[in-house]
Design brief:
With 62 residues, the chain is of the alpha+beta class. It contains 2 helices and 4 strands. It binds iron/sulfur cluster. Its cofactor is [3Fe-4S] cluster.
Amino acid sequence: MKIIVDFDRCEANGVCVGIAPDMFELDDNDQLTVTVAEVDADRVPDAEEAVAQCPKAALRLA
Ligand code: SF4
């Protein structure tokens, strides 16, 4: 399972980073990066939480 970011929607507010700092990173230019190529099975609940909590609906799992 991968995390897909719609960068046209992301406003770099860091909600996802707060939920799953091991999977998301914001750099000094407010550019979001997904730091995992695949979500480990035991991290799926937090990935789903990040998707659900993103206020811009910029995340999805595929
Ligand atoms: S929670 Fe959504 S809008 Fe905020 S940084 Fe993450 S992807 Fe972007």
